[in-house]
Amino acid sequence: MTLILSEQDVRSLVSVNDAIDALDVVLRRQGKGDAVNLPRRRVHLRGGVGLQIMPAADLESGVVGYKAYTAGRGWVKFHV
Hints:
The protein has two helices and five strands; from the N terminus they run ααβββββ. By secondary structure, the protein is an alpha+beta fold. β2 and β3 (50-58) form a beta hairpin. The radius of gyration is 14 Å and the shape is globular. It starts with 6 loop residues before the first helix and ends with a strand. 1% of the residues are buried. The mean pLDDT is 91.
């Protein structure tokens, strides 16, 4: 099932402490090869508008996701 969350959705659902705990777990899994965090990919258009995508997966729990955002001069829009 696909779930699309805005930055505001994430802030209302996950505390900073919960996020730190989750990162601790998944970064340890990444160290064992059980999680993947790919580098940010960027596509830029003329006029300064761009799309950035950051995919990742926790292979152990079977969760995959991404953070994507578009940005221009003076604005940015996030999706997680």
